[in-house]
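Review box. Two proteins, two foldings.
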Amino acid sequence: MSSTRRKFVLSAAAAALGAVALTGCSRSSMPEAPRPVVKKILVLPVLPPDRFWTYNNWVLGFAAIPSAVANRIKSNIFDENMVAERKAMGPKLTTALVEQLRREGYDAEVLEWPGRNPADPYSIDIDKLPGTDPVLHVYFGDTGMDSARLSRYYQPRVNISVDLVGRGKVGSLYGETIYYGADSRGEASWSVPAPERFRFADFASLVDRPAEVIASLDAGIQGLAQRVARNIKEQG
């Protein structure tokens, strides 16, 4: 994951409830608030990934050290070549989330909020956000292309973290990290496998076939947005 600090600050009331729970108070001694019926969701604009990474982990032993240096160089080249696509991924995912949530029956819209702190854009105080509906905050983790150990081919990797937070004392309604491509495993709620056609034989293929690379990332955005919307729906 990126070293950028990620946090979503809940309301003081929600934090206080968490503190009470940590003191060992029995759940049975305090009636749980009924889960609200979610009809409308406000989607915070998704920020683009901090950068793209490429990993090739097929080597072992002492060769892993020069391989790590080569990975860094390749990541820099890939990130520079794909900077326009990287910056577009935030708006693309924002749009896809709204579309998929609407398909699941939610009244979803983008929460235009100019109050983000440029010095710490991932720190959000929910009490300062406009509106009263639950807020969906999604951000990218590791993003780029990955070549697994003992494999030379690359496949896309797009990981996101998801928080759906209610207002006031409601707190978290849904939270999960979801993996597309390289880190996915089957059809679990946190997994979105990449189509088999999005495999690239070597790093040169990533450089020479940018349109296919973009298509593989776009497929991930759509798959991840669909998974998020479906998971929220299944939460009730």
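Next protein.
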Amino acid sequence: MTTASSARIAFQGELGAYSHEACRVARPDMTPVPCATFEDAIDAVRSGKAELAMLPVENSTYGRVADIHSLLPKSGLHIIEEAFVRVHINLLAVPGTRLEDVKSAMSHTVLLGQCKAFLSQHGIARVTGADTAGSAREVAAQGVPGMAALASELAGEIYGLDMLARHIEDEGNNTTRFLLMSPEADHSRRGSHGMITSFVFEVRNIPAALYKAMGGFATNGINMTKLESYMVGGSFTATQFYADIEGHPDDPGVRRALDELDYFTNMVEVLGVYPADPGRH
């Protein structure tokens, strides 16, 4: 039997990545398992190498994480929890470096774009790296005082870098939403901030199909917090939708809305029923 201390949680990226930080926040007793891609993180759970996967789905500044919604339905995994993690960006350099010594900063292009004001103010050039934690590791390996990295505090701890400036992101509410994925579904009512139901669906090829499919949620007073479309298999006609709603499938209003949705769709698949994270509010 797997105990909490021996259980593993897979994530995409290197040790010190923000997904690693999310694992430490949501499952501090589990051993993090770094993976090269989102698919590898999913496969780690399916193969039994890890018990859970931590997947980012959207960021308050950057928006949707590319490709993740198309991976969820065919993953064979279930959403059992969500976690909202505040993304703090820090300027990290080899020990002994002063802020005025830094000439360039390396990071993922998204983070570089989220720190434009600070970098411009200090005349620091932007250097694109593969990812945040990998940039921190590269800066530590090069040992050049003039080169810094933009990454998490955790990355600084892991790679032995000094923090020259904390929380330098332009937006003060930069937050990433993560989903915890498990091989087993858990539809039990739990948590103290309500429940979220996530599902994907494909509308029938009839006029106003999406409008009609959504009607049941409006008439039953169900709050839909997310609705996004994505193409399936590169087709312009086979469009699927990903949705989050507040409530549990056993709630009378939710049940009626899903029944009505089923009438106007070719496919509906529930991806998870899980407690709303306090960070959502």
